[in-house]
Amino acid sequence: MIDLETPEYLEKVRTAMNSLAGSMLRPIARKYDEAEHTYPAELDAFRGIQVMGRKKKKPVEGEPAKPKSDKPAAGQNLGTVVTVEEMCWGDCGLMLSIPNAGLGNAAIAAVATDEQLERFGSKWAAMAITEAGSGSDAGSITATADLDGNEWVLNGEKIFVTCADRCEAVVVWATVDKSAGKAGIKSFVVEKGTPGFTLDHLEHKLGIRASDTGTFVLANCRIPKDNILGSAEVKKSTEGFKGVMKTFDNTRPMVAAMAVGVARASLDLLKEKLEAAGAKLDHAAAPNNLPAREKDYYMMEATLDAMRLLTWRAAWMADNGEFNNTEASMAKAKAGRSGTLITQKVADLLGPLGFSRAELAEKWMRDSKILDIFEGTGQIQHLIVARNVLKLSSKELK
Ligand SMILES: Cc1cc2nc3c(=O)[nH]c(=O)nc-3n(C[C@H](O)[C@H](O)[C@H](O)COP(=O)(O)OP(=O)(O)OC[C@H]3O[C@@H](n4cnc5c(N)ncnc54)[C@H](O)[C@@H]3O)c2cc1C
What's the whole-number mean pLDDT along residues 30-51? Predict the structure, then answer.
C-alpha cells in the first residue's frame, strides 16, 4: 500500500523540531563554525532529548501484550529522519554535537543487553571504526582485542571519530581473531578515562566545524570482559559482522536526512533571495518560458523531494521490520550526492552572496560534502545497491 499522507503526529514532530532548530541552532550556526573545537554550551539544553535511537521497551511480565496492528507502522525511524532533517535545516554540525546523540548511542541502543544499557545507556557514545588503512572496507580493520582473564586488552588507532572530545564512551571496533577475517570483528564499549585510551588530536575540517572529530590511540587498554557488544563467539560464517553492519541500515537514512535538511536550508535561502529580487515563483508556468534561475530552482526542489522520499521509504521499511539494505543505500547515495550539488548550485545562483560569510550558503556548501562521505561514501552506496540488484557477493563485485 502506498500512502503519501504524512501522519498527524509526524507533522507535529516536524513543527516542534523546526521551531527548536530555528530558535536554538540556526542563530549560533556561524558562531561555532568559526569557533571550531569549542563545545557549544547552548546545546546543554538538549540533554535528555533523544534524537538518535532508543531501545525498544521490553514487555513487562504480567502486562498484556499490545495487539499487533495490521496497519503499516510509522514509528521511531521515520520520526528520527523527520527530526534529523529539521535539526540539520537548523545546523548540521550542531546537530551532530547534541549530547547523547552519537552514533555509538545508536549502536548501543540496537544491541546492548539490559545490564549494558543500564551502564552505558545514559552516556554520550561515539563510534570508532575507521583506521588509517581501513575506511570503506570496514572488514579490513586491524585494531585488536585479546581476552586476558576477565578483561579485553585493546590495541590500535582509530581516526576521524565524531564527538571524540565531547563523548563519554566510544564503541570501538576491533578484531578478536585476525585469521577469522570479518567473522572476528566485534564492537566494545570503552569509557573515557580508561588507562591506555588516549585522544591524540582533533582535526581541522572544511565543514561541520561545530562537530569535533578526533583520533584515538589504544595502547594495552584494558576493559571489562562484559563491555563487548553482542556475542564474543567467533563463528565460521560472517553472520556476526553482517549483524554489526546492519546498524548502517538504520543510520544511513539518518545521514540522508541530514543531507535533505542542509539542502533545504540552502534552497529556502535561494527562494527568499529570488523573491526579494522580484521573481514570482509559479509552479504552473510553462517550463520553456521560465527564466533559467527559476528553472534551476524547480529542478532542485524536485530533487529535494526525491531525496526525502527515498529517505522516508528506507526509514519506513525499518519501522516495519522490512530488510532495507538496498533502500538505505539508495537514500544515502542520492541524498549525499544531490545535497552537494544543490548547495553548490545555490551558492552559484546567489552570486557574490553565495561566497560571502554574510550568508550561510557558503557554509552549507562546505557542510554538505561530509554527508556524501561518512557512513559509507557515495561510491560505496552504489556498490551495495549494485551487489543487491545483481545478486553478487562482496567477493564477486568489489
Ligand atoms: C568529518 C568526518 C567524520 C567522521 N566520523 C566518523 C566516525 O564517527 N566514526 C568512524 O568510524 N569514521 C568516521 N569517519 C570516517 C568515514 O566514515 C570514512 O572517511 C569513510 O568511510 C571513507 O573511508 P576512507 O576515508 O578510508 O576512504 P577510502 O576508503 O580510502 O576511500 C577513498 C575513495 O575511494 C573510494 N572507494 C573506496 N573503495 C571503493 C570501491 N570498492 N569502489 C569504488 N570506490 C571506492 C571511496 O568512495 C572514496 O572516494 C568520519 C570522516 C569524516 C571526514
Answer: 89
